[in-house]
Design a protein that fits this description.
mainly alpha; TatA/B/E; protein transmembrane transporter activity; protein transport; cell membrane; translocation; Single alpha-helices involved in coiled-coils or other helix-helix interfaces
Length: 117
């Protein structure tokens, strides 16, 4: 595929503006930016988890097991079950909720502007 020059990029930009409109393009760019940030954060977490698991496996493999006399196991009293706090929503869920709130606010602002006119 040949390299894209300035004229080709201008034609692509013009087509995008015609398809989506000038007002939608900044919103789409923000959405793509948020998505990329979330994607990068998640892949970094996965990489960290993989490195952490790999380090543990290596450390466990190098440790020589030592024979220790076994002691009788004492029964532990069963503790009452504590209620579990609701889980924190994920970053994607929070972003979706914020986008929904922003859409509602925009709709309310548009409705109020229509009432004034």
């Amino acid at each position: 595929m040949p390299n894209l020059g300035v004229p080709e990029l201008l034609i692509i930009a013009l087509v995008l503006i015609l398809l989506f409109g000038a007002k939608k393009l900044p919103e789409m760019a923000r959405g793509v930016g948020r998505s990329l940030r979330i994607f990068k954060a998640e892949t970094a977490k996965l990489r960290d988890d993989d490195e952490h698991d790999g380090a543990q496996t290596t450390a466990q493999a190098t440790v020589q097991p030592q024979a220790q006399p076994q002691q009788p196991v004492q029964p532990q009293p069963i503790a009452p079950v504590q209620p579990v706090a609701p889980a924190q929503p994920s970053a994607e869920e929070q972003a979706r909720q914020l986008e929904e709130q922003a859409a509602r606010l925009r709709a309310n602002a548009a409705a109020q502007a229509d009432k004034r006119v």
